[in-house]
Prior knowledge:
By secondary structure, chain A is α+β, with helices and mostly antiparallel strands. Chain A has helices at residues 2-14, 20-40, 147-150, 245-249, 269-279; strands spanning 53-63, 66-67, 75-76, 82-99, 104-106, 113-117, 125-131, 134-143, 173-174, 179-188, 198-204, 218-223, 229-231, 238-244, 263-264, 283-288.
Amino acid sequence: MAFVTGLIIIHFTMKNIFSKHAAFVLAVFTLFAFSSCSDSAENSELTPVTEGGKLRLEFDNVVGDKNLVLNSVTYQNATKEDFVVTKLNYFISNIKLTKTDGTTFTVPQDSSYFLIKEDTKASQFVTLNNVPFGDYKAVEFMVGVDSLRNTAPIEKRKGVLDPAGSMALDGMYWEWNSGYIFVKLEGSSSKGNPVNNKFYYHIGLFGGYTQKTVNNTRVVKVEFGSLKAPVTATATPEVHLLVDVLKFFDGPGTSLSIEKFNSIMDGQEAKSQQVANNYAKMFTLDHIH
Amino acid sequence: MKLKMTRSGSYTFLLLLSLLAFVSCSTESKEPEPEPTGPTPVVWKKPAHFPEPVYDLSRNPLTEEGIELGRFLFYDGILSRTNKIGCGTCHQQQAAFTHHGHELSHGVDDLLGTRNSPAVQNMAWSKSFFWDGGVHDMDLMPFVPIQNPVEMDLSVAAAMEKLRNTPVANAKIPVNYPRMFKAAFGTEEINSERMMKALSQFMMTMVSATSKYDYFKGGDVNALTIQEKEGMVLFQKNCSSCHEGELFTNQSFRNNGLMPMRIDDKGRFGITGVDADKYKFKVPSLRNVGLTAPYMHDGRYHTLEEVLNHYTDSVQNSATLDPLLVQSNGKTGIALTSSEKQSLIAFLKTLSDEQFIRNAKLSDPGIGNAL
């Protein structure tokens, strides 16, 4: 950069010395040499930045009015069954924000898949970039992974969508029945299965590849009510969402009894659909700061 | 910054400056040296009498280096927890890439699976994979056996970590996978996409289309004997509605009337959850069927005679039995005399492809374990 500035000074000085015309041609030529250079070099400050700020979503997992603590705290569901949560993972995707003027901003598809894990604090904060400045009044997202991405070629399955995990490594992908697990809740209970007291809920199914299955993706819209999230050049509003495990057990779909269902996976389509109707209602706004 | 110089001197100066700009530019951008040799493209050829392939080669163009990497990955036990079980362990070339003699296959620590190892052949035309069709994309298929606890029992993430740490000094052959990935894909990076695409490239080359039957189809009327030709006519009449076309399968899912075993494997139902799919399994190709015993999804029949005896004598009626297996008189199964069975078997054996099972390009490069 210092060199470019120096060059401009030289051009000015040269006005006095020789014909304006010749100097102009050479100057243009020289600048052209530099500008063609800046395409390949890392002079990112030369290119104008798209106007936009950041907005952060926090997915704060709770159990009723208590914070969720893995492995150690015993809670009770609506059917009065005790339970301890050992694992809670879920996919959030296809995020869309609505401004107070009603216009919407859809996060670019390839940047819109997030895996929230209770055992990984950082995963619970989803930062959205290049959000147009303005006041936002609602957020919409999908719980799960849409059918398009569930059937996409492998080059479209990067990051949290990489199928290279496994069940043993906390995988969120059914490789033998191609498809992502949308919500995984595991734990133990005195009403759990008689072998090890555990319960396992792995809810997925995107609607089927060639043959129709249930579709357990759910679109959730959280209105901010009287609150708003102002995105400016300097402020990153944080929308703090509560995600209530009790509502996973009890909601419009079903009142889930651990004793009756200690395992729900891809083999119980109807039941998994009821649970999906429950988890669609897990998300509420706590505050914005 | 006061410069005093002649006009020509000024021009020279500016020219030098321009050149400097170019020079500094070329050093800054550090354009990579052109590779002396990139991966060598391979043109995939469809056998003339075959349909168009299902696999999209435009997303994964074949190269010699990619295919070779895929071949090593196919045979190398490094993809299993125990370093012993490769894909080629249960998919052996001399048995048309099945596990000859094994009703069910044994993976790591001799753990048994629940279904018979299917032939890895003509995968290019496969619309779905496995007996229940749970996977639809060849690039997503290898995740299943690698991660299955009774097959290779290793997460693909862990397998890739092992590949990154090659060559291993005490290996049978110290393969340098980072180098092979570089040769195939330009850099040493090992990721799921590259690993699966290399395996797919190799599987794309596993085409069986040079059996006696194929020579007959190609115009050599003497390639089949009279009995084999009689068998072909019987086959077309009795079998080809499911074992259809040049692939010898229409890739549908059918209940062919097998009595469920103790495990009560419901097949396709496990994928779709639809009652109508109970006890249905994918119609297998019959190419190389003379080499792929034992038969059926659970390997219960050991000879082609037993298979045909099933179709004539022991087809079980049930809610989802294929209607094609109910005769007009209400009896289940297919009516065949014993001499017709012999002709059918003679025809089925013309589907054995000696070139396919001897093709050195598909063979174990010396790293596999055929257990």
